[in-house]
Design goal:
Oligomer: heterodimer
Radius of gyration of chain A: 22 Å
CATH superfamily of chain B: Cobalamin-binding domain
Largest sheet of chain B: 5 strands, parallel
CATH class of chain B: Alpha Beta
Distance between the termini of chain B: 44 Å
Strand content of chain A: 5-15%
CATH architecture of the largest domain in chain A: 3-Layer(aba) Sandwich
CATH topology of the largest domain in chain A: Rossmann fold
Helix content of chain B: 40-55%
CATH topology of chain B: Rossmann fold
Structural class of chain B: alpha/beta
Distance between the termini of chain A: 33 Å
CATH architecture of chain B: 3-Layer(aba) Sandwich
Radius of gyration of chain B: 16 Å
CATH superfamily of the largest domain in chain A: P-loop containing nucleotide triphosphate hydrolases
Order of helices and strands of chain A: HHHEHEEEHEEEHEHHHH
Largest interface: A-B, 37 and 38 residues
Number of strands of chain B: 5
Number of helices of chain B: 5
Helix content of chain A: 40-55%
Amino acid sequence: MSPRRARAASEGGPAGDRRALARAITAVETGADGADELLRAAFPRTGHVPIVGIAGPLGVGKSSLINLLVGHLRDMGRTVGVIAVDPSSPFSGGSVLGDRIRFDRPAADAGFFFRSMASRGAPGGIAGTTRDVARLLEAAGFSVILVETVGSGQVDVAIRDVATTRVVVLVPHLGDEVQTLKAGLFEIADVFCVNKSDLPGADVAERDLAEVASMGPAPDGWRPRIVRTSTLAPSGVPELWRAIEAHERFSADSPGRLADRRRRLEEEIVGRVRDLVAEEAATRLRTEPRLRRLVDRVVAHELDPRTAAERLLAEGRR
Amino acid sequence: MAKATAKPRRGPVRILIAKPGLDGHDRGAKVVARALRDAGMEVIYAGLRQTPEEIVRAAIEEDVDLVGLSILSGAHMALFPRVLRLLKREGASKIPVFAGGIIPDEDAKRLRRLGIRAIFGPGASLAEIVQTAQRLARGAA
């Protein structure tokens, strides 16, 4: 993609060229030529808006809740980009992305952009490129980004490193308070949301979560808020947004959160180096005769894979 | 470090499956969605009671390679041409559209002339639908 197209895409937000934005997302998602250029152009315009991760098990009502949250935000005049991630089949690679069904924004609403993403084999509840797609949406001018994860298992916590505020959505009767002590999903919540709170048992769920929230001295002083919502007879959505905003304000000048942000970006750089080196190594192993002979020796068990890897890296540095 | 060899990668085919109009159920569309998933496609399932405006918006935002419309109500002659017109207005008339449902032969002929690329009736096999979708997504006629 040309730099001009890249700029067009990064300006394709509210009232911009939606098609260019949609295509830019595809380019980033598939790692097409031009994706780097797009992200380079977008990055300086990012890092300022809330990126809210909405995680939680399958069927707790994440999509319906986000639909109401979008309505609330639009009523307040905020523009909203939504990324909804669903799993790819480990067997066929295909997927059914069905979150769009829950959304009832008018087709003419230019302040709203919805994109479904398949996880494409990435573990952790989001796709490998979800963070970059969120950046494209922010650079395009949307003032809040909502990311719905795959219906999470207990350890699907990749959203932690993408979102600025993490909401974990639960429902009554998911288990006793021992469940809430377990590692993983419960540890990443900045806000707990007890959805379907019209059902009996919401009190108990809220009490159990309050206990989790009050138990550990949070390392940076933030205690997860707990909000009750219902999407059946809509309630609690403004409170949910206020809790998210409270966390955003807290994060803005928390030294712990700043350090965390630095750590995440470091990890992202290292991850990118890993990808680039691995890609290059794979290509060279297949194409350079001398390296092919190296592999032959490993196949013959004359040389071990670790030593071969070191030699390959050493050759690259020459 | 040497730049990794540039190779344009294509992701899985992305397809929008939607039901324009006021159909009461979407069993058939779901069966097709599942078959397309099993063929390795990413199916954006928009479901029931979609307006042509919503369908076209979804097709644009999701940057799909093709659109499949399913309809049982009999309103296809009003709704399908409108989808095609709106796609054209958005500069997206290159996105192929195919259809399935209860569509009399005579209407099917007219819809093909208007630009619906393939039409499947109640007897169509899933294999046939999947093959057609793959062919259309590759940009073949």
